[in-house]
């Protein structure tokens, strides 16, 4: 069985900036934990860059 659902998240909920002086980002730990628990692969880099 397949389920489809939508998630709406602001960019600050999607990525985290460990160093505020840098443009480098990582997936937000809370968002990543939820996606891992649900076994969902989210193309965070593609979404952020767009």
Overview of this structure, please?
With 50 residues, the protein is mainly α. The chain contains three helices and two strands. The protein has helices at 11-14, 29-37, 44-49, and strands at 15-16, 26-27. The protein has a two-stranded antiparallel sheet with strand order 1-2. The longest helix is centred in the middle third of the chain and has 9 residues, at 29-37. The protein is elongated, with a radius of gyration of 12 Å.
Task: Compile the SSE list and pairings.
Blueprint: H1 11-14, E1 15-16, E2 26-27, H2 29-37, H3 44-49
Antiparallel strand pairs: 1-2
Q: Helix and strand succession?
A: HEEHH
**Outline type:** elongated
Task: Report the oligomer.
Answer: single chain
Q: Radius of gyration over alpha carbons?
A: 12 Å
Instruction: Report mean pLDDT, rounded to a whole number.
Output: 88
Q: Structural class, from secondary structure content?
A: mainly alpha
Measure the end-to-end span: 31 Å
User: Which strand-content bin applies to the residues?
Assistant: 5-15%
Number of strand elements: 2
Helix-residue proportion: 25-40%
Mind describing the biggest β-sheet?
A: 2 strands, antiparallel
Placed side by side, the strands forming the largest sheet appear as 1-2
- SS element count, helices: 3
User: Which blocks of ≥5 consecutive residues have pLDDT under 50?
Assistant: none
